[in-house]
Amino acid sequence: MKHPFLLVWLTLIVLCGCTSSGKQKRHVIGLSQCMLDDAWREAMINDMRIEASNYDDVEIIIKDAQNNNETQIQQIRDLIRQKVDVLIISPYQSEPITAVAEEAYRAGIPTIITDRKVNTDQYTSFVGANNYEIGLAAGNYAAHYLPPNAIILEIWGLTQTSPAQERHKGFVDALREREDLSFRKIEGQWLVDTARMELRKLEHPGQIDFVYAHNDMMAIAAREYFMAWDSIRGRDLRIIGVDAVAGAGLEAVEDGRINASFLYPTGGEQVIRTAMRIIQGEPVDKFIPLRTAPVDHQSARTL
Ligand code: FRU
Q1: Cβ–Cβ under 8 Å, residues 116 and 162
Q2: What is the end-to-end Cα distance of the chain in Å, rounded?
Q3: CB 153 within 8 A of CB 212
Q4: Three-class secondary structure of residue 222 per DSSP
Q5: 139 CA → ligand 1 middle, Å
Q6: How many CB atoms are closer than 10 A to CB 301?
């Protein structure tokens, strides 16, 4: 370095920068996400950031478990060790994440569970839409389009997650009286690539009359698969999904790749608002429900 003074000066600028603009935030929210790699979760993070920007003294630490229970458990333990002010958990699978969620709560960290459930009531608040109701609404929608003796293909999300179980239960309950129907199941695990892979193994695709996918990405994979198999039947086949997130499923309903979807709000805004209430010492409800709504071609355009 030709100018040692310059080095000292630059170091000072960096240090000053750290204490003025980048000063330690007063409140830290830890977010343990089961994965980040899709439009719905990106929207959730975005919604969180927008809501957090209303407060000038809060920082969110985001951990991405990349669809792995062990990684998520370790990351939650890190956040417990860091003593975050509030911990938000969007679990990968319900059962394996239950114990560590309890651990956080018992360590005195207010814990918000969102989207997928854990199998305990040891948490501060749960924020999420009612997936059983989504399943019911999807079943009632399907009932209008199912010919006698129809065969329904259900593309499941990860079977060990509460939204997949509840979306399934609501759907079959809505169609309980239709004893003529039969169901086929494939496990897409919420992922477009897995859905594609499992669809390729489908036997007699021509027999399918209706497709119910637990999320829009898997519904889009189904449309692609059936179109490639037979473009006429593939176009006419009724396929529905769940999420209707802007930038992905909503557009797919609008352009006809999916016939309908059911809004599954990310809750990003509500979880941050709930976290801030906890930080400010205000009481919060144990359950904060998010509203859902059917989305068809018309409403997708409006939305
Ligand atoms: C996103 C997602 C959504 C689905 C939710 C269920 O990762 O798969 O499509 O509605 O998770 O937990």
Answers
A1: yes
A2: 58
A3: yes
A4: helix
A5: 19
A6: 11
Q: Compute the chain's Rg from CA coordinates.
A: 23
For residue 216, how far is its CA from the centre of ligand 1 (angstroms)?
Answer: 9
Percent of the residues in the chain that have a pLDDT greater than 90, as a whole number: 88
pLDDT category at 106 given cuts 50, 70, 90 is very high
Helix intervals (H) in 37-161: 39-52, 69-81, 94-106, 131-143
Cβ pair 254, 299 in contact under 8 A? no
Q: For residue 15, is pLDDT > 80?
A: no
Q: For the residues 16-44, what does the mean pLDDT come to?
A: 79
Helix (H/G/I), strand (E/B), else coil: 199 = helix
Whole-angstrom Cα distance, residue 278 to residue 127?
14
Q: CA–CA separation, 135 vs 80, rounded Å? A: 35
Judge if the beta carbon of residue 242 lies within 6 A of ligand 1.
yes
Contact 208, 237 (CB under 8 A): yes
Q: Ligand 1: distance of its center to the CA of 198 in Å?
A: 18
Q: How far are the Cα atoms of 35, 132, 143, 212 from residue 215, in angstroms, in the given order?
A: 15, 14, 19, 9
If pLDDT is split at 50, 70 and 90, which confidence band does 302 have?
confident
C-alpha closest to that of 226 among 250, 200, 244, 190: 200
Q: Can you point out the beta strands (E) in 123-188?
A: 125-129, 151-156, 182-187
For residues 32 and 87, give the distance between their C-alpha atoms in angstroms, rounded to a whole number: 8
Q: In this structure, what DSSP letter does residue 62 have?
A: E
Nearest residue by C-alpha to atom 8 in ligand 1: 190
**3-state DSSP assignment of residue 182:** strand
DSSP 218: H
pTM recorded for the entire structure: 0.90
